[in-house]
Specification:
It contains 17 helices and twelve strands. By secondary structure, the protein is of the alpha+beta class. β2 and β3 form a beta hairpin.
Length: 500
Amino acid sequence: MFNLFKRRHKREVFESAGRGNSQIRAFAAAETSRILAPWTFDGGFSNGEVASALSRIRARSRDMAKNSEHFLRWINLFVANVVGSGFTLKAVPAPLANDVDKIDQRAARFLQYHFWKWSTNARFVDLTGRKAFSRFCRLAAENWARDGEAIVLLCKTSKNPYGLSLRLIRPDALDETMNGIRTPDGMVIRNGVEVNPTTLEPVAYYFRSGREDPQAAYYHNQPMVRIPADRIVHLFTQHDEAQTRGIPLGHAALKKLKMLDMYNEAELAAARDEANTVGIFYTDKGEEGEVVKLNEDDAVTSKLCQKSDVAQKFVLPNTWKYDSHTPQHPNREVTSFKNTMLRDVACALDVEYANFANDWGGVNFSSVRAGTLAERDQWKNLQDDFAEMFLAPIYRMWLRTFLETRLANPYVPSEYDRLAEFEFRGRTWAWVDPMKDVNAAVVAVEHGWKTNEQVAAEYRTDFDENLAEAKRVRPLMEEAGLLSKKQEVEPSKNKEDEDE
């Protein structure tokens, strides 16, 4: 029989030993000691910390975007990979009949055409008339990365036939210092965002109208504007459930990258100073009187103070000597030191180091492939966030206003729920050998691992549209005699099989 009393005795011995040294069961990360004294308490992404630090971090991030080549490189990579040439709308409205396996193709083509027509016209999309939807999205993505958030005002207007225009608002206008304020109806304002304290759902946004103009940031008594949340699209990365504002996405890399830029400047200045310092003329002790004679002779003085030239030699006066200077800058360890620092920065920005730093020395195909695939997974996550938090609410508002216009005939506002099914497809990436990708897709479709629709989506096309286009083009190719022999033989071969 199992001895329960013996087991209990061992546990008591262990517990009694633990009482003498409380560190036995302590977490190492919770240890308080002299060595870990600089490790201070941090409240996470709390609204109070955001209120006190957001404006400073945002200003420093903007400065780095202007003056740091590496930070600018990351922002360009962010915009190119998250948005690129833009997203493609795939409308999937439910059919009129009760058939869940099909979509209303006619309505889908109708919605896709009109959204394309609206999104490609800068006068329709942008309230300023400057940007079509793809450029608007790229600027929003840049704001998201650099400032931590992108804020869009949905403006119903009669100035374009679709009834909707967008306005991108500078995050400075949303007053993050308004924090912990209770409203008469029981809501609470957190960092300029009025939320329901029970559900944390945004109710309204408070903007200081003057802050959109950077020169007006120092003005007082700026009028406060309250805008309902259903007219605002707020894109930011959330790190805490109660967080209402976004922090610049590169915040973890800013300090080290700034110090690295300062190091580069100091190293470059030292190298330039030493390059301009060729050598020093001097005389032994007791011969200082020669200096007076040299100063009296302008011809000699000009020779001794002139800039050096290639293969230049000096004839020195009696008792004078020349000490050549060997530059110590640029330091031989600069490259390895900078590469190490930039690897840390690349980790903070979650990008592949070789591509981020344009440093392809010492890499091979396998390492680049592994790093690139890991980086692309992160870009896909950011694409999903952009489509969910930015594109989806804009499209839903566009659809509502569109159905209220005459252009939507024969569709009416009551069909919104049926028509409001969609997805946005972002950019994809080809590998270095496109033929292998195509062959792999063929094998995947043949074995049922993928469908033709999925493969077409990876190439940012629509399979149904491809079939319709092929059906239209094939007779023209036959008439022009452009069909290959394989394409001409296969139909006849299939006909023989049918006859058999």
